[in-house]
Design goal:
about 290 residues; MetI-like fold; 14 helices; disordered C terminus
Length: about 290
């Protein structure tokens, strides 16, 4: 009878995990390192320099308008998508959670439709809608923004509804018993409890919008609405300098900054909500 040795299995799983992490990260780290080359080589490491970020007066990201424009477009699109999508998604999640009609299940299923629809299908559908049906909508940034809002709302609804299911109705009911009206109970009790889910939704929408290629390209009208993923796709092989690597690195820094910010805020929220019930009961007492 052989002895069971879980340590060996754990070591094997850890080794496979680290091999996968290295396989995924090494190409990214190589591309980042090349962005700091002092010369124009994109295949070998050269002495470190910030030439392709802002030192080069012609071809760096800071001075080359063909690189700055996609960066501005991507950040602007992600920012507007967050500001507009999350409030709409939170409102829809609360409404769907409380809807008790015959069509509620169908509406819930329809809300998940964008999550399972292939992105290429969504992009073609949105392109046809804005070119054949809603022809009065300005093309370019406006259509891109509407497209990003369309595919991002489902993520917000799913995240917020999961939090609503975990919270339950008891806090709002207690606030109503203490004399709060519906609006006060929602503003002072429910929304603070939804804080972690709302912030997570903001980060998901930001990451999805800034990384999107298919829908942005279908709804783009040219260089004026070109985003960073589109620029990388169109110039990845043709470019002769590491400036494109620098542009991709800048976008990676923005994404990582959002992730770190999300982790810090979520940690702070957990610490503040350590008293949880006591804090919210105090809020409800104040409302009463």
């Amino acid at each position: 009878m052989s002895r069971h040795r879980p340590g060996r299995h754990a070591f094997g799983l850890a080794a496979i995990t680290w091999l996968y992490v290295l396989w995924s990260l090494v190409p990214v780290l190589v591309a980042i390192r090349i962005s700091f080359n002092s010369g124009k080589s994109r295949s070998t490491f050269q002495s470190p320099s910030l030439r392709w970020y802002f030192t080069d007066q012609l071809q760096s990201v800071w001075h080359d308008e063909s690189l700055r424009q996609p960066l501005r477009n991507s950040l602007k699109l992600a920012a507007f998508s967050m500001v507009l999508t999350v409030p709409i998604g939170v409102t829809m999640a609360i409404g769907l959670q409380r809807w008790r009609g015959k069509l509620s299940k169908a509406s819930n299923g329809l809300m998940l439709f964008p999550l399972v629809t292939p992105e290429i299908v969504m992009g073609v559908a949105l392109f046809l809608v804005f070119t054949q049906v809603y022809t009065g909508v300005p093309r370019g940034f406006t259509t891109q923004l509407l497209g990003h809002i369309t595919f991002s709302i489902s993520y917000v609804v799913v995240i917020v509804r999961g939090r609503l299911a975990a919270i339950g109705p008891q806090y709002e009911e207690a606030a109503r018993d203490l004399g709060a009206n519906r609006l006060q109970a929602m503003r002072l009790v429910l929304l603070p409890l939804l804080g972690p889910a709302i912030f997570a939704s903001l980060m998901v929408v930001f990451a999805g919008s800034i990384d999107d290629f298919v829908i942005s390209s279908f709804l783009s009208t040219g260089a004026a609405s070109e985003t960073v993923p589109m620029k990388i796709y169109s110039s990845g092989r043709a470019t002769a300098t590491p400036a494109l690597n620098a542009l991709a690195t800048i976008m990676l820094v923005f994404t990582l900054a959002a992730v770190v910010l999300a982790a810090l805020v979520m940690r702070r929220m957990r610490l503040r909500q350590g008293g949880g019930k006591g804090a919210h009961l105090g809020t409800m007492a104040a409302v009463g």
